[in-house]
Amino acid sequence: MGVGFGWVGRKVMTKETVLIVGAGHAGFQVAVSLRQAGYAGPVRLINDEALLPYQRPPLSKAYLKGAGGAESVLFRPTKFYTDQAIELVDGHVVAIDRAKHSVRLASGAELPYGHLVLATGARNRLLDVPNANLDGVMYLRNFAESEALRTHIKAGQRLVVIGAGFIGLEFASTARAKGLEVDVLELAPRVMARAVTPDISAYFERKHREAGIRIHFGVGATEIEGMNGKVTGVALSDGRQMSADLVVVGVGVLPNIELAAEAGLPVAAGIVVDAQLLTADPDISAIGDCALFESPRFGAPLRLESVQNATDHARCVAARLTGKPETYDGLPWFWSDQGNDKLQMAGLTAGFDHAVLRGDPAQGAFSVFCYKGDRMIGVESVNRAGDHVFGRRMLAAGRSITPQQAADMSFDLKQAMA
Ligand SMILES: Cc1cc2nc3c(=O)[nH]c(=O)nc-3n(C[C@H](O)[C@H](O)[C@H](O)COP(=O)(O)OP(=O)(O)OC[C@H]3O[C@@H](n4cnc5c(N)ncnc54)[C@H](O)[C@@H]3O)c2cc1C
Known about the structure:
Blueprint: E1 18-21, H1 25-36, E2 43-47, H2 62-65, H3 78-83, E3 86-90, E4 93-97, E5 102-105, E6 110-112, E7 115-118, E8 122-124, E9 137-138, H4 143-152, E10 158-162, H5 166-177, E11 181-186, H6 198-210, E12 214-217, E13 221-227, E14 230-236, E15 241-243, E16 246-249, E17 253-255, H7 258-262, E18 271-273, E19 284-286, E20 291-295, E21 300-302, H8 307-321, E22 333-338, E23 341-347, E24 354-360, E25 365-372, E26 375-382, H9 385-396, H10 403-407, H11 413-417
Parallel strand pairs: 1-2, 1-7, 2-3, 7-19, 9-16, 10-11, 10-16, 11-12, 18-20
Antiparallel strand pairs: 4-5, 5-6, 8-17, 13-14, 14-15, 20-21, 22-23, 23-26, 24-25, 25-26
The structure holds flavin-adenine dinucleotide (FAD).
């Protein structure tokens, strides 16, 4: 069963409780997939947030823009959990007792498990400079933070965004559209540098600048400035100073691995799991943002932060627990909405050695087909959903087209997919 700790994942018996820690995308999906696969035993989903389980992507997109109330981001209303006999437990897990097969909540309550699924996700990486805790320095990971930002941002305010990654840029573009003065600081020489190819960075940099966002490369914040406990500005690493009413920090996340580590499970850049998403304990799985999984597809351990990864992991674990063990082999894909542009990515482009464009960035619709040798490894698309679908299908099937075909707009992708 792939690279692993030597366990073959076992089916859970109907009397056993599947206990899920964390009710984000991964945790919610395991519960749903277990029921869809016909598991009739107890399923408990531990939720440490103040809201029913909800989707994160809208927090930096539609919800932030002001569309809908809290119910618009929920996966499902309360009735769904009752109907599906998925028991939602409010609480935060503070310890796992592997010998006793139980977890302890902050309230002191103990909950038993037959199989435990760690779906603890990730948390904001905090800005480590003086005065970073002043009022007006904000983050965007959970519903409460999105809600606070949504009510906080007002036209005319001066905003400094620290970090030009997906979250920072999605927030910056929404804030700019609402009439804020926006500056973005980025240590790297281009936007979203860790995740996308230079062509995509260049396109989004241009679009954000055209919208009136000022982007500063090669600089970071060295100190947050304030008065009476409130932020008034940011000191930059190049000696400049910027006034600010609001500072939003988007400098990445840290996986929530401490619970697993304290229980003696191996952790590294995530909770270490094998290609079946099992930890070193055959009765504990880990999935989603918190999991560092062995990937036969990429031949290396991976930790990804995406809805696709969280939900496909969840489906794989639910299948194993209901008697259909499989090696996890999902194809990574991702999207980001910035301004009026939709970026969609299929595959992983890290390590590509050449890329070709299909379509024209100047026209606002193009894709970057990335190759390693003669193998297509990833497709990044801006406002070309058809190319994205093509990329996903072909890459999932391990198929490729040549760079010449990719660049030739008369080459029919639909036919190539057939
Ligand atoms: C603002 C924003 C926008 C995003 N946009 C996109 C997008 O456009 N496309 C995309 O693919 N991905 C996007 N993502 C990423 C995506 O949302 C994450 O990859 C996904 O949420 C991961 O799911 P998860 O279940 O692993 O973790 P999470 O969704 O983080 O859920 C983990 C849950 O576990 C809880 N928890 C942690 N520790 C404990 C404990 N000890 N006890 C109980 N509960 C615990 C946490 O509070 C949390 O509720 C976005 C993320 C954010 C924050």
